[in-house]
Amino acid sequence: MNAPSPDRSRTRRPGRAARAHGKRSREAILDAAESLLAERGFAGTGIAAIRERSGLPASSIYWFFENKEDLAAAVVERAMDRWTKMLGETRDTAPPGELFDRLMRRALDEMGHALPPFLRLEMMLALERGAQDPALLARLRAGRETGRRMTEDALADAFSKLGDRARPLAADLSSLAIAWTQGALVGHLLDPERIDLDALADELGVALAAVADHRLKRERSP
Predict the structure, then answer these.
(1) Tell me: the pLDDT tens digits for 11-23?
(2) 205 and 134 Cβ atoms separated by less than 8 Å
(3) How much is the pLDDT for 28?
(4) How many CA atoms lie within 13 A of 44 on its CB side?
(5) pLDDT, tens digit, for every residue of 184-202?
(6) Structural domains present in the chain
(7) Which residues of 174-200 are buried (b: 16+ CB within 10 A; e: fewer)?
């Protein structure tokens, strides 16, 4: 007599339930860490505070994250992922030739004219821990690279009339665009009366076009 076949749905359920529970626990830890890091900064946030706010034991935190630096980097990565997905909606719907202007405008509108907590944390980690933790710095650079590539695509669209030269030029200028934007946000936090982000957003495209024109003239000169 053949043995009854096992109920595979039952054998799979515990695995799915455990994975779902693990995902919820990890997200709860990230939520707690994100709010605490925004309130207190990296140095002022301890594992004990994250444990208390998340309601999960320290053993769970260390199960998912090697240390506080690892957890903070994961917070930045998750927030950056949300940010780029939001900007991706603009990328997918902007008419040709308007992508860069709309992308910069959407970014500033979503920021509410303030530096997003994940960008503050990214800068803080890079300054405080980057020299001592190359792996952490590499993770922060990877997130920044995502934003740079999106900016490069937008600039390539803006410079499309240059043909094959558009993409290399956009790649060169994308880092400048990010530095301009982040510097303007920091400046606005320090001196909001003097730093007009709306005006800077309008002028960024003009400034980059001027830099592009200068580089193209330099390339053509003997």
Answers:
(1) 445 477 667 778 8
(2) no
(3) 95
(4) 10
(5) 888 888 888 888 888 887 7
(6) 9-65 (1.10.10.60), 67-220 (1.10.357.10)
(7) beebbebbbebbeebeeeeeebebeeb
